Amino acid sequence: MKKIFNSIILYAGLFIAFILVLSCLQLYENANRLFGSKSGDSNYWLTFSKKLTPDNIGRRELLGFNDNDITKLKTWPEVKNVYPFSANEFKASANGGDFIPFYTDLYFEGVDISGIDVPLTEKEFQVKGNEIPIIISREYLNLYNYGFALNQGLPQISEDFAKKIEVNINITVNKENKTYVGKMVGLSDRIHSVLIPKKFLDSLNLATKPNLAGQPKIYNRVLVQVKDSGDEGLIAKMKDNGYESNQESLRSAKIKSKLFLVLQAIAILGVFIFALCLYIIVSFIKIQFLEKQEEVSIKNSLGYSPKKMVNDISRRFSIHLTIVLVLSLLLIAGGQYFAAKSSISNDLLSPYINPYLWILVIIIPILVYFFVKELIYHWLIRSWKI
C-alpha cells in the first residue's frame, strides 16, 4: 500500500511539472499572438516627439527632429524604419456645406505610404484634380460620433458612410485661397492625425515658403517601426534623448514583458519539480534493487544480465511517463480550445495547441529512458561490483 501511495505522489508530481512547463510554452505562444511576437519579424509602431522643456518651447529647431536625429535613430538596433511626418506650413480649414453645418481649422500631416496602416498604394493615395484623399485617426471619428455629434444634435456617421461624404477643404497659399474636395479613404489605428498625400503637402509647403528649399528640414515628430516597444534598451535611449511616445503602447509592451517574465519563472519551477521527480525516481529504483539485492545477485549468478534488469525497469517507467505526458497535453489542449473560443481571444488564438508540443511525448520519455538506465546501471555495477 505504501508503494502504491508513493507511486501516486510521484506521478502526480510529474503531472504537475508537465502541466507547468507545457502550459507555459503554450501561453508564451498565445501571448505572442495577442501582443505580437518578439522577434526580428515583429513590428511595433511608436510616434516619437521631443519632450517639452523651458529651453525648447517655441524653438522649432530644438523641438523638432532634424536629419541628424533621423540618421541617429536609424542606427539604433531596436529600430527597423523611421518615417518623418511633414506638417502643413499653410493655413487650412474645412466645412461640411449644407449636409453637415460645421467649420474647423485643420492641421494636416503627411508620411510615407509605407508607414500608414491603411491598405492603399501610392497611386491610390494621391490628389486627383481638386479631390484630396484624406486618412484620419479612427479615434477622431469616435470623438465626433460619441462626443461632438451627440452634444450638438448632429447625425452620427459610420465608417462606410464617412467614405461617401465630401467636405470642402479651403487652403490659403501666398494669400490665394484654393478650394478642394476632401474625401476620406480610410481610418488609421496607428496614427492619430489627419493625413493627406505627402508629396502634395510638401509641394504646398514649398509654394507657401520657398525659402524652406534651402534650409535643413525639421520634422515635428516621426513614426518609428521597432522590433519590440517594450525593449528596455529602447526605452532607456528614448529617455536619454528626451523622446516621448504613446504611453499606452509602452505600457502594453511592459505588460507583455512582465507576463513573459512570470511565464519563465513558472516554467523554471516546473523544470525544478521535474528534476526533483527524476531524482526521486532514481532513488526509488535504487531502493527496489536494495530490497531485492539477494534476488538480483541470484539472477546475476544465473547469467541474467544486470543491464537487462535495468532496461526493463527504465522501459516500464518511460511508458508511465508517456501516459502522464499525454494526459497533461490533453488537459492543456482542452484549455486551449476553450480559451480560443472565448471572447478574450478576439479570434487571435488557435483552438489547437502547438503541434511541436506533441513531439515531446516521444522525445522526453526516450531521453529519460536513457538517462535513468545509464545512471542506475553504473550505480549497480559500481556499488555491487557485479
UniProtKB/TrEMBL annotation:
The chain crosses the membrane at residues 7-28, 259-282, 317-340, 352-372. It is a multi-pass membrane protein. It comes from Chryseobacterium soli. It is found in: Cell membrane. Keywords: Cell membrane, Membrane, Transmembrane, Transmembrane helix. This is ABC3 transporter permease C-terminal domain-containing protein. Residues 268-371 form the ABC3 transporter permease C-terminal domain. Its main location: membrane.
